[in-house]
Amino acid sequence: MSFNEAFKAIADPTRRKILSLLRKGDLTAGEIASHFDMQKPSVSHHLKVLKQADLVQDRRDGQHIYYSLNTTVFQDLLRWFYDFVEKGERHDEE
Fold first, then answer.
1. Which of 2, 45, 50, 51 has minimal Cβ neighbours within 10 Å of its Cβ?
2. Please, where are the H alpha helices in the chain?
3. Which pLDDT score is estimated for 93?
4. What Gene Ontology molecular function terms does this protein carry (predicted)?
5. φ, ψ for residue 56 (rounded to 5)?
6. What whole-number distance in Å separates Cα of residue 24 and Cα of residue 39?
7. Are 37 and 26 in contact (CB under 8 A)?
């Protein structure tokens, strides 16, 4: 996982909304697209960016592809933020 790719992915409000939708459970691309006023290829592009950042995983079930959150990457990001804040606080005390 690249932090740069993850930060780039979550910088976009559409991708953040997709992540919020996936918090509730796995969805197909069509189910995700139904929440937006955009063409399906645009939704596919956003899903591709999220997959490249390892924030989203996909699995095939018959003819459907289901997308889900990769919570491990979110844990890594939170750990980075925590370390960043902690080191910053310790640095301020010195």
1. 2
2. 3-10, 13-23, 29-33, 40-52, 71-93
3. 47
4. DNA binding; DNA-binding transcription factor activity
5. -130, 140
6. 23
7. no
| pLDDT tens-digit map of 58-92 | 999 999 999 999 988 878 888 888 888 887 655 44
> Is CATH 1.10.600.10 the classification given to domain 3-93?
no
Cα–Cα separations (whole angstroms), residue 59 to 37, 54, 62, 81: 25, 13, 10, 29
Report residue 33 as tokens: 């697209």
User: Higher pLDDT residue, 4 or 56?
Assistant: 56
Measured CA to CA, the distance from residue 25 to residue 55 in angstroms comes to 14
- pTM of the entire predicted model: 0.82
Tens digits of residue pLDDT in 14-50 = 999 999 999 999 999 999 999 999 888 999 999 999 9
Structure tokens at 54: 């390892």
